[in-house]
Amino acid sequence: MSAADIIKELPKLTPEERLSIYRQIAALEHLDEIDAGPEFHAAIEQGLRSLETEPVVPLDEVRAKISQWAGR
Predict the structure, then answer these.
(1) Phi, psi of 71 (to 5 degrees)
(2) Digit-coded pLDDT (tens) for 9-54
(3) Does the model's pTM come out above 0.70?
């Protein structure tokens, strides 16, 4: 499975599953050595929950809007 395949499947997971994956990646990359604090973890959890309730804008659409805003 490629990284693109994994990324494509992430929205299908529960917030708890995504947080578990995040923590595993943090451990593999030794990011767990950085104490981000409870506010950071709460923000991550809130962001993951918002993926289920907020509309998702495709990256191509975001790029097009940025180009429009920049006057290109």
Answers:
(1) 80, 25
(2) 999 999 999 999 998 998 898 876 766 788 888 998 898 888 888 8
(3) no
